[in-house]
Amino acid sequence: MHTLAAIAKTLNRPVVYLRGLQERFELPSFGGAGYPAAWLNCVRTIVYLRILNIPEETLRELWHLEKKLLQLLHMDTTGSPTWFLDACGQKSHPDRRLLLTNCHLGTSLRAAAAVQPGLNFSPRAPEFFPSTAMGEDALAVLRDCLKIHVRIHSDITAELPVVRAAAR
């Protein structure tokens, strides 16, 4: 567990900057040394991507899409207030993880069509209408996530030579 001040020092950013990210990305707030390592890892990813000149608007759009996808797949069943952050910092199978939430989808992200419609990780009673009948489609949301992910990867590839030159 970390304090916000310790996280700010680790990321070399002022606390007010982190509070702004916390507000704009709707991240949970904790008192004192209550910030879990997953929170730090999530914010670290955002900060690193911002250093690589990825627009915050793009990151927020991806953040909301990833959270929506996780909700459509009913992966919010842990009861944890940080259920959408809990995978942040995991290193195994990066090709199977979403970019910001770092959630492991069980298959390569490139195999988006392999996600089985109707997956439900929750023991809750089903809705009266299937989510696809109400306009929600996990595959469509995943494809939107992947479009942004590809764009971010392309932007990072273009920015890396500049960052390397600046570091020299």
Describe it for me?
The structure is a single chain. It is globular, with a radius of gyration of 17 Å. It is built from five helices and no strands. The chain has helices at 4-11, 15-24, 37-51, 56-72, 138-167. The mean pLDDT is 85. The chain is mainly alpha-helical. It has one domain (4-167). The longest helix has 30 residues, at 138-167.
Question: Which class do the helix and strand fractions yield?
Answer: mainly alpha
| Arithmetic mean pLDDT | 85
The count of DSSP E runs of length 2 or more, i.e. the number of strands, is 0
Helical proportion? 40-55%
Explain the layout of strands and helices.
Elements: H1 4-11, H2 15-24, H3 37-51, H4 56-72, H5 138-167
Helix pairs in contact: 4-5
Gist of the model:
This protein is mainly alpha-helical and 168 residues long. The protein has five helices and no strands.
